[in-house]
Design a protein that fits this description.
The structure is a single chain. The protein has six helices and seven strands; from the N terminus they run E-H-E-H-E-H-E-H-E-H-E-H-E. By secondary structure, it is of the alpha/beta class. It has a seven-stranded parallel sheet with strand order 3-2-1-4-5-6-7, with helices on both faces. The longest helix is centred in the middle third of the chain and has 28 residues.
Length: about 260
């Protein structure tokens, strides 16, 4: 038996990258999965490849009506019990170069979209006896990063909302946790698609490489499963040790022979 037999899940941003990996892994563990995204051709292709267990819906997560439609589709497939709030956008710019419109566009997707998804999921999950919500934040929801003021703001907000939701929803057997990925080899984490050089940016961390979407998916699957039945309000860094600290090449024990490696993160 799969860990998600008899359960229906919604995964946002599921047309590619982390969301696709999460949707595929949930389906492999017995879930029926609603894949939500705005990249319709890609999303439909992924759902078709997964098979009968998957359905694609167009979902702009900042749109309340589209959320209600996605949840109605999930409810029509069985017991809606799992939400992975994965979709996000990023608009890098220095603060003085960030327009209010650009700032709010990121907030509306990453922060408000996550909020709407959680809010609209409460009633059906409660009616179904409980559920699990996994919000994908970022290591940038735990620290600052120059050039990412809107993204930082939104991911810190996701971290805070997660804890508030955990406190409010535990009484309904709904667990809410956040995942904080470091660099991940997706179109967002590796926009140039250059796999030959991408690991060079991660020589400062304990595991000196970029992460794979499947590694984030495995963490999300754990937190959404009954294996994590006593975990709520937690934040899990899946970051290769990024938040543990920074390896200094010049000091003993670094294991690195190249002095002066730097990374402006």
């Amino acid at each position: 038996m799969g860990r998600f037999d008899g359960k229906v899940a919604i995964v946002t941003g599921a047309a590619r990258g982390q969301g696709e990996a999460e949707a595929r892994l949930l389906a492999s563990e017995g879930a029926k999965v609603v894949l939500g995204d705005v990249l319709d051709d890609l999303g439909e292709a992924v759902a078709k490849d997964i098979g009968d267990a998957a359905t694609y819906v167009h979902l702009d997560i900042s749109n309340e009506e589209q959320w209600r439609n996605a949840i109605a589709v999930a409810q029509s497939m069985g017991q809606y019990r799992v939400l992975i709030n994965n979709a996000a956008i990023i608009r890098p710019a220095a603060i003085e170069d960030t327009s209010t419109a650009d700032y709010l566009s990121v907030i509306m997707v990453n922060q408000v979209g996550t909020f709407i998804g959680m809010r609209e999921s409460i009633a059906p999950m409660r009616a179904n006896g409980g559920g699990a919500i996994v919000n994908i934040s970022s290591v940038d929801g735990m620290k600052g990063c120059n050039g990412l003021v809107s993204y930082n703001s939104s991911k810190w907000a996701v971290r805070g909302m997660t804890k508030t939701a955990a406190l409010e929803l535990g009484q309904h057997n709904i667990r809410v946790n956040s995942i904080h990925p470091g660099g991940v080899n997706t179109p967002m984490g590796n926009p140039m698609g250059d796999d030959s050089m991408v690991n060079m940016a991660f020589t400062h961390q304990a595991l000196p490489r970029i992460g794979a979407p499947s590694e984030i998916a495995a963490a999300a699957l754990f937190l959404a499963s009954d294996d994590a039945s006593y975990i709520t309000g937690a934040e899990l860094a899946v970051d290769g040790g990024w938040m543990a600290g920074r390896i200094v090449p010049e000091l003993p024990g670094s294991g690195l022979s190249i002095a002066g490696v730097g990374y402006n993160a």
